[in-house]
Amino acid sequence: MSGTARLGIAEARKQSLESASKHGVAAQRIRALVSVVADLVSHGWRIELVGEDILAKLGNGNPEITSREYVRRIQLGQREHQLLKPSVREFIKSMERKRLGPNGWTSIFSLTRDGTELASALLKASARPNLVPDIISPYIQVIKGPEQTCALTGMRLMDIWRYFRYTWAMPYNSVPGRSMLLLVRDAAVENHPIIGIAALGSAISQLSGRDKWIGWTPTEFLRRIDELPTASTARWIIRQLQRAMAGIYKADLIKKEILTRNELINPTDETISTLRTAAGRARAIHHKFPNRKDHKSGAYTGPHWKRQAVLPLFVAKRCELLARLLQVKKALNDYDFTPTSTSLQRLASNPNGRRAIEILVRSAKGEHHGINMLDITICGAIPPYNPILGGKLVALLLCSPEIVDAYGRRYKNTPSVIASSMAGRGVFRSPRLVLLGTTSLYGERLNQYHRVQVPEGVAGCKAPIRYNYLGESSGFGSSHLCRETVEEFELLLSQSSQGRRVNSIFGEGVSPRLRKIRDGLDMLGFHSDVVLKHGNARLVYGVALASNFREVLLGQTNTPKYALPQRDPRQVSNSIAAYWGERWLSPRLVNHPEAIEAVALNDVRIPDRHAARVQLPSLISDTLPLFA
Q: Strands, DSSP E only, in 299-417?
């Protein structure tokens, strides 16, 4: 779809939404419907009207267009929709205007390296072994807060990151949960231009290939027990149950006689049923009368967490989890479970016992998923570094102990909000990062993560750190529906007499955006499973930073065995960058001379020719003839 066609769809969406507002009680339903249809059309769906029904079909109607190009065009449509917003356009223009910085007049273009200069330097030094750090001298700069500024230009680091993020094909959206943004810069030239950007965020909750690889799927965990039941696993079962039970505030439940102290030791089926009934009542109250103000973070003190614990949402969550854990406790009691391999084998041979183990595996995942692993949500190079495989450099540097150290420092004193609200007290879990996960932008094996690794011996690495290919994602999600559509759904769902199931309250459940969209689509009469099947399957990767990452993520140990030395993080990063120069940069220059030609095209003296500049789409008013 051409840029002009996408622009026309954006204008048609705007006009249709304005018109829909005149239709009284049905206005919001029409607005949501218009927004969904506009998203689908701009992403290549074919829309047909058959009577009063709307038929939508996903498909690449041109067989000459590759799958990669088709997906890219779809992503560009949503990105252009974002770049049409007045606030975004003003931000882009403000970054491109010159301002007085610590070392004179600068703009965002001061942080892009001149491709002609870089190409010339690479050609002159291509036979030398020390291209890094002489010609390119990479280093990591973690953005510690929104007000942190660049010492060389005076610009906010967050704004620098955001500007270059808009050069990506995919639209820019912030994500909830833990996050870290970072720049990779080049100290070899003035102003230390940006080589690449990266972002780490809270990991996707459900990813079957990754979970199987870690051992988080009950099937995989039980398979290992069937093959080799051990006393250490039996001891883990007891510890995990005790740890999970200790993390639930119970005083109010006992006071209301929902359960007794004795039932915590000797639960019955009636105990479990009573808890589930209480959970249902509390969940219904939360849906009917959600109050987001009550869930806002306050002073992280004991009284705050107790107030959180007795809110209907967390009463429901506590009762649900306690019912499952007491089901485990009952199974262990029924089989006189002891911390021995024989007892474990007996427990795993019975359906109730296997169900108990499944519950504990999911409990362990819930404890460590948001603490000990992160997803790489953004990773790539900025022109002119991308033709010389700067993306692989950024991917390699994410394995550095600088990342582990920065994450640990940022979150070491941060309580786990959900765990604290469940426990009625502050819960602080050690943020020891042992695993990174990510997906490719396109479903092709030849991408920037392909064959990327820190080999044994490089930078003191004890065992190779690889981007392990774990399979493909299902091509299911909501990336093809824009934020405005979600906002229309929120308004539509708020009119439901049953109340909203999703209120963007932390703790309601994973993927609130996806659940809002599903509820909105269902309310409009769409088949949500069909609409959410966008067809862009991606490749899934896992990066183990510690050899015992599985044990850490299952709560079997608290001490990671990191592959890279952690004592001098910056020096390790320098060694990784030097390895990139030898393994990827030098061969690239020898075997692909066209890469240097691509670098040279980015002339910083002509910003429009530099690919690191954000290209804003024209407005409808820009495209009209002068005397229309």
A: 373-381
Q: Where are the beta strands (DSSP E) in 382-459?
A: 435-439, 453-454
Reported as a single tens digit per residue, the pLDDT across 175-200 is 778 999 999 999 999 999 999 999 99
Q: Is residue 96 part of a domain?
A: yes
- Residue 330 domain-assigned (yes or no): yes
- Give residue for tokens 């990342």: 403
For residue 553, is it within any domain? yes
* Token duo for residue 436: 């990174």
CB atoms within 10 A of CB 227: 7
Strands (E), 505-620: 539-544
Residues 194 and 242 in one domain: no
Query: Which runs of consecutive H residues, i.e. helices, occur in 84-138?
Result: 86-96, 115-125, 131-134
Determine the 3-state secondary structure of 339 from DSSP.
coil
pLDDT in tens, 206-261: 888 999 999 999 999 999 999 999 999 999 999 999 999 999 999 999 999 999 99
Show which of 336, 359, 382 is a domain's final residue.
Answer: 359
This prediction has a pTM of 0.85
Contact assessment for residue 238 and residue 343, using Cβ atoms and an 8 Å cutoff: no
Residue 51 lies in a domain: no
Cα–Cα distance, 207 to 439 (Å, whole number)? 11
